[in-house]
Amino acid sequence: SGIASPIYLTFLTANISAVSQGVTPPYITAEGFLLFGMNIGGTGAILGIAIAMLTAKSERYKAVSKVGIIPSIFGISEPIMFGFPIVLNPILAIPFITVPLVLQGITYYLMEFNIIGRVIAQVPWTTPPVISGFLITGGDWRAALWQLIELIIAILVYLPFFKTLDKSALAEEKALEEAK
């Protein structure tokens, strides 16, 4: 962050200047770009699994879901990251790494080909997805729609991994209950 932020902020400033002159913003990876894909609900597009956890059958994951869903909407992923946990979880490593990279890559090309607007404003990192996409692109509804689509993709990718873990947790809970 100490190295990247000054560069991203310089790019954002150049984009703002370009828009004020009626020119297409020159930079895609300006400050705020990572709010697409990478940071939907926190690093790793965590809001996808937070929403998937609403389908939990195990008591453990129902509890984590209740604690983690609201913070995730605002980009605070720690209750899910450490409560689930995602940290050091080999099953979730695949979607945790892959989902944001794919979504961020697609976002780059959507901006490159001017399908969605480029970043021309800065918003707090806690701004929820869809709203942040709309605001940082200067009111581009297509960017907001793209963030909604990204969220749906994240949910769909995380869901089978979560279901596997939920099934295992439910079996553990039943075994503990029977042992009593």
Describe it for me?
It is a single chain. With 180 residues, this protein is mostly helical. Helix content is 63%, strand content 0%. It has 7 helices and no strands. The chain has helices spanning 4-20, 46-52, 59-73, 78-83, 90-112, 131-136, 141-179.
Low-pLDDT stretches: none
What series of H and E elements makes up the topology? HHHHHHH
Name the overall outline: elongated
**What separation lies between the terminal Cα atoms?**
50 Å
Query: Would you count the extended β strands for me?
Result: 0
* Strand percent estimate: under 5%
Helix fraction, binned, reads 55-70%
Largest sheet: none
Supply the helix-strand structural class: mainly alpha
Using only C-alpha atoms, the radius of gyration works out to 18 Å
- Helical segment tally? 7
Overall mean confidence score, pLDDT: 94
